Amino acid sequence: MYPQTQKMAPVTDADEENDADEADDAVSSPPPPEQKSTTTKRQRLVITSTKPHHQTLTPPASSSNPHMPPGASLHAPTLPFELIAEILKWLPVKFLLQLRCVCKSWKSLIYDPQFAKSHLRVSPTVTHLILTFTNNPSREFTLRAYSLPSVFNAVTVSATQLRYPLNPRKRFDLIVGSCDGILCFAIDQNCALLWNPSIGKFKKLPPLDNQRCDGSYTIYGFGCDRFSDSYKVVAVFCYECDIGGVRGYKTQVKILTLGTDSWRRIQEFPSGVPFDESGKFVNGTVNWLASSASGSSWIVVSLDLGKECYRELLQPDYGGVAVVTLTLGVLRDCLCMLSHCDTFSDVWLMKDYGNKESWTKLFSVPYMGNPDSFPYTKALYISEDDQVLLEFQSKLVVYNPRDGTFKIPEIQNINGWVVPEVYAESLISPCF
């Protein structure tokens, strides 16, 4: 149930200052003194309430309006607050952040977690590409967001600078992934950060307290358990040790449910060790590309975030093609596999999650330039007209399978290594 109110009080100056601190959206300031005489002549709508849980828009009577007799007022139709909430949840995040300043009840509604979830289900999806890199020569960690349509269609792509919560920072923090507008960062081998850049809310998670040793590393995963409607971060700690007289790796797996502020151990990784940079979230599961127990092949290990149990997913039938290496990803909310050969990469989608027979090859992407160069490292997004955005040697490439052409978006003032990720705007807060 959304919050209800009998009186729609205007937001105070203090409220507006708090809103400005919470997000980057600008709130218009009052007009300067020389414009005050012009402003007072305008008709201004005053939000009042004449019935419980209803709103009425009432312009005050004014002699400046020749069509309104002195003492008369014009009443707009009364709207139940539930109907106002229904209307607001269809608006993009950017507009809702501006509408927080209309009145306290609207601000309370927009910050309500249940409204945020309802808004996520029905509102227009506004999707961005985010790039992370370190600036030269300052070495400060930097993040920029780009409109995805502009990446596909524009020659030169303009950026929006994002304010990373932990800056100034002189090191690179790896993006683990995104889910429902929340980005997860591995800020070191023992800690993670959750951040929604759309609303400016973030939460630094407690440390893992693993026993660090030479050769050890941590791989994270992040997603949502749709059954319990909770967000979870998974940390797979891999460490080297003697196993039956042979040097090998073991794992410790911990999971944190957002709102509990504590890590707990679950069953360790079932086979081999993961070697992806991070787990890929699809259909309530986190998926890793891992080495088999013998180390001679690759497997796909899936962790169900609800049941907290593992299973191995069967790979596509590559049709006798000599696969050199694999890359796991997500496209169109489906698990994606890039199978790399000597001169091209095949793009596969698992359209029915968990069903081997649903693996479908979309197309093959030839390598750019030297055939001996590195393969594509990530498939990021497919547009409505089937163009695919790929990462290639720390650069972005748009491939059009319909005519076999490539396009390199011009993203200026970025030198060196970058990591791209796609995220959608939302009101979901990581601060439960």
Shape from CA axes? globular
What is the helical fraction, as a range of percent? 10-25%
Distance between the termini: 18 Å
- Low-confidence runs of at least 5 consecutive residues: 1-64
Please give the CATH class of the largest domain: Mainly Beta
Look up the CATH topology of the largest domain. Answer: Neuraminidase
The DSSP helix count reads 7
Task: Please give the domain count.
Answer: 2
Content-based structural category? mainly beta
Q: Going by CATH, what is the homologous superfamily of the largest domain?
A: Kelch-type beta propeller
Using the 3D structure, state the CATH architecture of the largest domain.
6 Propeller
Beta strand count: 27
How much β-strand is present in the residues? 35-45%
Mean pLDDT: 80
Most strands sheet: 4 strands, antiparallel
**Gyration radius over CA:** 26 Å
Note the quaternary state here.
single chain
Strand order of the largest sheet: 6-5-4-27
Task: Give a brief description.
The protein is 12% helix and 38% strand. By secondary structure, it is mainly beta. The model is unreliable at 1-64 (pLDDT under 50).
